[in-house]
Automatic annotation (TrEMBL):
<dbReference type="InterPro" id="IPR036388">
    <property type="entry name" value="WH-like_DNA-bd_sf"/>
</dbReference>
<keyword id="KW-0804">Transcription</keyword>
<dbReference type="Pfam" id="PF03466">
    <property type="entry name" value="LysR_substrate"/>
</dbReference>
<keyword id="KW-0238">DNA-binding</keyword>
<dbReference type="InterPro" id="IPR036390">
    <property type="entry name" value="WH_DNA-bd_sf"/>
</dbReference>
<dbReference type="GO" id="GO:0003700">
    <property type="term" value="F:DNA-binding transcription factor activity"/>
</dbReference>
<dbReference type="GO" id="GO:0003677">
    <property type="term" value="F:DNA binding"/>
</dbReference>
<dbReference type="InterPro" id="IPR050950">
    <property type="entry name" value="HTH-type_LysR_regulators"/>
</dbReference>
<keyword id="KW-0805">Transcription regulation</keyword>
<dbReference type="Pfam" id="PF00126">
    <property type="entry name" value="HTH_1"/>
</dbReference>
<dbReference type="InterPro" id="IPR000847">
    <property type="entry name" value="LysR_HTH_N"/>
</dbReference>
<comment type="similarity">
    <text>Belongs to the LysR transcriptional regulatory family.</text>
</comment>
<feature type="domain" description="HTH lysR-type">
    <location>
        <begin position="1"/>
        <end position="57"/>
    </location>
</feature>
<protein>
    <submittedName>
        <fullName>LysR family transcriptional regulator</fullName>
    </submittedName>
</protein>
<dbReference type="InterPro" id="IPR005119">
    <property type="entry name" value="LysR_subst-bd"/>
</dbReference>
<dbReference type="GO" id="GO:0005829">
    <property type="term" value="C:cytosol"/>
</dbReference>
Length: 297
C-alpha cells in the first residue's frame, strides 16, 4: 500500500492526473489502476470527480494526511539507516550501576554483540545516582539501573521487574525444618552486599519492615565472591533473581529459595537515556534494540 499512497499523494499535490503521470513517469492507465487499487483496499472513494477537477472526499483528505506522514516517516527511516551504515563500526557506552553490572549487563552485552559483532561496547560503573549524572552529561550513551528514574532531562524505559531470593548452601541447617520463611532470616548468619546500592537498600528495608536482625558476617561488593564464601562461612545471602543461573547454583552446591515477602518486594530495572533529539541515529537504534530484547526474553 505504501506505493499506492505515494502515488495518491502526488496526484493530490499536482491537482491533476496528467501532471502526476508525468511527475511519476507512469502512464495514465497505470496511474488510474493504482488509485483504484487504493480505493478498493480502503473500501471508499478518495476523489469526487467534478468535471475535469478532482476534489478530495473526507476519507481522501484523511488518507492524504496519512500518506504525507508515512512518506516523511519512511524518509526519516532511510536517513537513519544511511547514517548508521556510514558510521561503520559503532561504539556504545553503557553506564551500569553496581548491581546491574553483575546481574544484567553480561547477558545484555552477549545478546547485543551476538546480533552485531561489529559493535564495540564500553561500560562505566558506579552507583545509580552517578550513572544518572553520566547519562545526563552525555558521558554515557545510556544507563542500565536497578530503579525507576524521574528526571526531566532523561527518558526512563522500564525493562523488567526483579526481586531478592534467599541463597544458601544445599545442606544448610535452616533447611532442616523445611522451606524457610521470612522470620527464619532473624539471627541467620549472612553475607550481604556492600551498602550504597538499591539492592542493599532493599535488603535493609526488608529487615527493618519485618524486624529482622541477621548475623551479618561479611559485606562484599561482588556477587561471585559472596557465592564462593557461603559454604566456607556456613552463611546465607539475598541476591537478585536476575543474577542467578541454574549452573551457577549447581557449581557452588547452593540452593535458591523463594520467600513470599521477598518476591513481593519488587524493583524495576530500567534503561535511561537523553531525549531522542539529542541522540545519534546509531544510539537510537540500540536503545530500540535493547527495549525489544527484554520484550522477547
Amino acid at each position: 500500500m505504501l506505493d499506492e499512497l505515494h502515488v495518491f499523494a502526488v496526484v493530490v499535490e499536482q491537482s491533476s492526473m496528467n501532471k502526476a503521470s508525468a511527475a511519476l513517469n507512469l502512464s495514465q492507465p497505470a496511474l488510474s489502476r493504482k488509485i483504484a487499487k487504493l480505493e478498493q483496499d480502503l473500501g471508499a472513494l478518495l476523489f469526487n470527480r467534478v468535471g475535469k477537477r478532482l476534489e478530495l472526499t473526507r476519507i481522501g483528505q484523511l488518507t492524504y494526511e496519512y500518506a504525507v506522514e508515512s512518506r516523511q516517516q519512511h524518509l526519516r527511516f532511510l536517513n537513519l539507516v544511511a547514517e548508521y551504515k556510514s558510521a561503520g563500526r559503532s561504539t556504545l557506552t553503557i553506564g551500569a550501576s553496581l548491581t546491574t553490572l553483575q546481574s544484567t549487563l553480561p547477558d545484555l552485552i552477549q545478546a547485543l554483540t551476538a546480533r552485531s559483532p561489529e559493535l564495540d561496547i564500553k561500560a562505566i560503573t558506579g552507583k545509580t545516582h552517578e550513572i544518572v549524572t553520566l547519562v545526563r552529561e552525555r558521558k554515557a550513551d545510556l544507563g542500565i539501573v536497578a530503579s525507576r528514574i524521574d528526571d526531566p532531562q532523561l527518558k526512563c524505559v522500564p525493562l523488567f521487574d526483579d526481586h531478592l531470593v534467599l541463597v544458601l548452601p544445599r545442606n544448610h541447617f535452616v533447611m532442616d525444618k523445611g522451606l524457610p520463611v521470612i522470620t527464619d532470616l532473624n539471627a541467620l548468619p549472612m553475607i550481604l552486599f556492600s551498602k550504597g546500592t538499591w539492592y542493599r537498600i532493599l535488603t535493609d528495608e526488608l529487615f527493618e519492615k519485618y524486624r529482622l536482625l541477621p548475623d551479618v558476617r561479611m559485606e562484599i561488593d561482588s556477587f561471585e565472591a559472596i557465592l564462593r564464601l557461603l559454604h566456607t562461612c556456613r552463611a546465607a545471602t539475598l541476591l537478585p533473581k536476575s543474577y542467578l543461573r541454574a549452573e551457577m547454583l549447581e557449581d557452588n552446591d547452593l540452593l535458591s529459595v523463594p520467600i513470599r515477602e521477598l518476591v513481593d518486594a519488587k524493583r524495576t530495572t530500567s534503561l535511561i537515556h537523553a531525549h531522542s533529539e539529542g541522540l545519534s541515529p546509531a544510539v537510537r537504534l540500540w536503545i530500540d534494540e535493547i527495549a525489544a530484547h527484554y520484550k522477547r526474553v
